[in-house]
Amino acid sequence: MSRKMKQYSTEFKTKIVLEVLQGDKTLNEIASVNNIIPKNIMNWKKIFLENAQMAMEPSKAIKEYKVEIDELKAKNDEYAKTVGQLTVENNWMSGKLKSLDSKSKQAIVESKLDISVSLQCKLIGLNRSNLYYTPVVNQKELEIKEQIQAIYEEIPCYGYIKVYKQLLEDGFSVSPNTVHKYRKELGLRAVLAVRAPNTSLGNKQHPIYSYKLKGLDITRANQVWSTDITYIRIKGGFVYLAAIIDWYSKSVLSWRVSNTMDTDLVMSVLNEALSLYGKPEIFNTDQGSQYTSYIHTQTLKDNGITISMDGKGRATDNICIERFWRSAKVEKIYLNEYERVSILKEDVKEYINFYNNKRFHETLDYKKPMKVYWDSIKINDENYGDKTVNVA
Q1: CA distances from 29 to 16, 235, 285 (A)
Q2: Are residues 237 and 364 in the same domain?
Q3: Distance of alpha carbon 375 from its chain centroid, rounded?
Q4: 244 near 237, Cβ under 8 Å?
């Protein structure tokens, strides 16, 4: 089903701009509460400020217009002297216009002019009957383009393949090549940002475990989980985002944002995942001190979980969650500037819900991660019985 583009009243735009100017909330907060793209708010603010002088000093604006009128009157005599020259030029232009093709001539003719339509057609050499020909409008194309525009406004990080998948889900019949063509005609490109990743620091006194995933055929949910911590810059410094992901389904099972990178952070993420989704057969981490700590490794052992750790300096050993970090950052986090941790948490929560339940995933044949997870769990339960998963 197609979605119409939102139209906002002048009163609503003014209210939003005044709220921005008050400075009590960030632009992202105002945009989020009112479900508006931040760029729109910035445009409204610009227009508002550019015309503020007219509201505050109307007499000055009127004076400026009077000066402009006087200048135009002074030039009137000069224009009158050129009428003869313009007549010559008009005759030359008329000849050129007559050489245009029929479609171009139709575009030139206007009904609301002092010159009649008949005379306009005569001047440019257009048969008047051709003026009223109405080309066939491809209504289906218009509807698809409207939907592509709507998808872009809601999910600007999507490339044309994911837009194609979303269109199919929305009930449109269209090919990937057509979607690519229409996006190009509309001037739409995926909005992404890229920054370098960060890594964790190890502790030489903690034991290190070998990497267990090399050559492993991962065929089901809860076979392998992995976790990691990444840095996110906000106003005044950094905070830390930790998450656990299921390798088979690419679903994010738990996450936390914290202003400290310690065992409390990683344990809260681990305990939540275990309580909501049972336990994996293998749990993979990097060699960061939080993950090699006694409390973290012992919790895994107590649950009968095999511990796996990346090789030193080998972030690609934990590629599943590294790819999630990249998606989250380029599609959401790096496109915003965060003033407060609370705003960042809301964005992360919103993105992970989108990623798990709405985002098409290439490596899953464009299926949604959480659906793949639960479908696999259902098959596991039918084959082996419900031994590992507790439904939240």
Answers
A1: 11, 15, 34
A2: yes
A3: 28
A4: no
